[in-house]
């Protein structure tokens, strides 16, 4: 860890100012000199590992009074970015109307981390790629653009099979983001010129030739809230992992369905643990719409979701696993009891 | 899972709460790094990013510029240290690879520089700013890497003297009615004790005090003295509590003498707290192993032939091996046995002891093979063990001092509900889960080593026991206090125990599960010396004839008899008669069959362990049986083990509460070893990849909803005065095979490589 300055931002304008002041125009956000500090459950780890070396931390926890509300009003949901994961997961209306959100949060991390971590920080969580997190490896295109990728032919069991490039195969590690992207969530961003709303699907950027650029956020911008249109009581989050708790997904699926009289009116499928960014399987969704559900359909949907998947030495199993997870999540969503 | 302490059965002590329970749960227990130091400097390690090659140079300008940096020590300016021999070759060290000696790199994560600063933070920052240029050479990572060398263990490792064999394996295997040949693999594992591999070194003149979590304070004291070239009496090692050892702190690591040497030069105490990932390379680990088992049996299930070949990875300079064939060739009745252990040298740090070092990998192979044989024979696996149970080990024909293996199988089977199992694989399920039941035998050699103790008894019953034993979480304080309380007839709360300090009378390494047997036997003996002095004071004098008979060993004097009996003692009367206020005794105990140099070795930090299979006329093991329920999700293939049931017999159980904790921890570790734990090695560069507790998986509470430990009553008068068989390393041995056997039952798929992960399941 290197020395850094610390300041508490008591209102959003001060936070944005402090973060903007230190921003250099051509730096990606992840290497900006000033970083916002919320729960700190990722940032502080990466600073100890010398992966992130911010000169300044801007503590945005004082903004929680305005930025942590959970508002469920009829046909939509608004979640403040500083709401704690555990508070949102325990909210009865979210459990009833958006089980995919409650479950994605409940199945993430540990109880202790969920009590500290915020929603905004959670979606910004950086990859767990061992080579990214170990600075003794020089070849990491995320850390050192153009240096190569140690994971490509290294130990890559946990790595991505979707959205990869020849520059980076690091997995996006989170769970909650799969629920957000599946439900067409919007993200509210507060910056120098006020707030703007963008689809959550546009927040993260696949690695392509610039794995160091992970999101479309600009230095000085903060996520202030998420909003989710509609209600999705028929939704599930299924997560396959090596142990029963406190472990990242090897493969997960966020599925939300609108089923009327046995026909699927609308379907959402997102994948976790297998892709470089929060991953919406739109081709798979298209196969579901207007159909009656059966196992054969589930298999075809699962196959479509992974049609473009590419495995490496240790992670090819994720393709077959991911298909089974999608099919099972669909079955669970179809058969779950929903109280109207 | 209930937390209630088990009711003691015959030949068990009371399940009293831990002596150190309150100190631990309130945070008052002081671990080595908690010890206050006067004006310390802080050290942070820089470790190599290559596994083989040499350092071309350092660029230290940036690091030296960090405010608070005092010194940066590299091979160019490190204190000169003497070499130390490997623990298993009569030395103290866990490795002979001595860092900071030259520019050469022998393994990933070798210490290449030590930054000393006024604060931990400054030392860490400066360490991050050290730039190193290397010339790397392609290293050999493991078994399948080019450039390794392989040779038989026998002749290389002084603790592996023979490949056990008897009869004519080849002929018997050839003629056997039923045959099995199968290969098994176990992975690299790291201990990851909660307490990091810290050390603090403080000099007072020529005297050095080391605060360091150690499983062998006498070994560490003598080893560091040897490396520094000073008198061992000038070195003291202190650690009243150790935050987990599991073998990782049994032998000396290079860090201690390095820090001591720098502290001397700086003339200031130095505190080193390495990181979790550095712990993977600056200490030892369990190396990966490979096995081939051949079993030949009659249709009746009787074993006719057994061959066990094992190979193990070690470092280039050190022939470390665990050689578990010494156990697997003796576990079952079999007239024709052969075996071979080989060592494969790679560019790795030297492996070392890790909880049940030989038995974990080798019994995984044998107990998996026994299950496979039972399937071939269409026989219940419990019955196959019963048919091949024996009271005499087949290699040397020596009798087991006691052996409750089948009693354990029967008790555990009953508690588990084994009779509910439908034998056909893939025949049991529950919703999304395929359900499998599996079992395996477990065992661990009963070992003892010479130990001294000092006991001081006051007239009011207050007692002080001093012994350089080790509280590594096992309950050493508690069972030592119980022993003194029982022998002296004083209330437990009046007994104060002091361990973890090399200024106390020597005790052996807390390894090989010998501690309770050794330290309690010593404490018993010294308590009896006190009783004898007191009885002598209140009894008529022993006659000359009685004394003469005792001297030549025909009989004991009345006072000796009284001291060794359970006869109560009236302390007031005895102290009045003796005319003193305090009685203090020191004594040195050694087990039957201990070598002649035992006591001298004990004082110089060499533990002469005896027992197991190495005794002349007998063989002593603790046994158990483990049953597990495994569930495999038919969609995700996730594997969980919701029920672990073990029954164990280990001679006298000193304290059923602490014993249960040990065995429960062992079962959980065994499950972890079967399903979760593995250190991943990057084949290209021989570096450990998942070197942190987020990526090196160990179970969380949700993984172990049901663990049941059954303690069997067993009395064994042929092992040691305490009648104790060590059980700290007993439970995590059989679980690996039991889990794989249950996975076979659940899925019909035999998996012979650990750990088993969801991608290994094809259903």
Helix/strand/pairing class of chain B, anyone?
A: alpha+beta
**CATH level-4 homologous superfamily of the domain at 235-335 in chain A:** CO dehydrogenase flavoprotein, C-terminal domain
Q: Name the structural class of chain A.
A: alpha+beta
**Total individual domains of chain B:** 3
Q: Kindly report the CATH topology of the largest domain in chain B.
A: Aldehyde Oxidoreductase, domain 4
Shape designation of chain B = globular
Helix content of chain B: 25-40%
Amino- and carboxy-terminal Cα gap of chain A: 52 Å
The name of the CATH architecture of the largest domain in chain B is 2-Layer Sandwich
**Strands ordered across the widest β-sheet of chain A:** 4-5-8-6-7
Tally the helices of chain A: what do you get?
A: 12
What do you see in this structure?
- The complex is a heterodimer of chains A (340) and B (763).
- Chain A is α+β, with helices and mostly antiparallel strands.
- Chain A has helices spanning 12-21, 43-48, 64-67, 85-89, 92-97, 99-106, 111-116, 119-123, 176-182, 282-288, 295-305, 317-335; strands spanning 5-8, 34-37, 56-59, 70-72, 76-80, 186-191, 194-199, 222-229, 235-240, 251-260, 263-272, 279-280.
- Chain B is globular, with a radius of gyration of 27 Å.
- Chain B is α+β, with helices and mostly antiparallel strands and 763 residues long.
- The longest helix of chain B has 24 residues, at 515-538.
- The A-B interface holds A 1-3, 50, 110, 128, 130-131, 134-137, 153-155, 157-158, 238, 240-247, 250-251, 317, 321, 324-325, 327-328 and B 49, 121, 124-125, 128, 277, 432, 633, 635-638, 640, 675-676, 680-682, 684, 689-690, 694-695, 697, 699-703, 757-759.
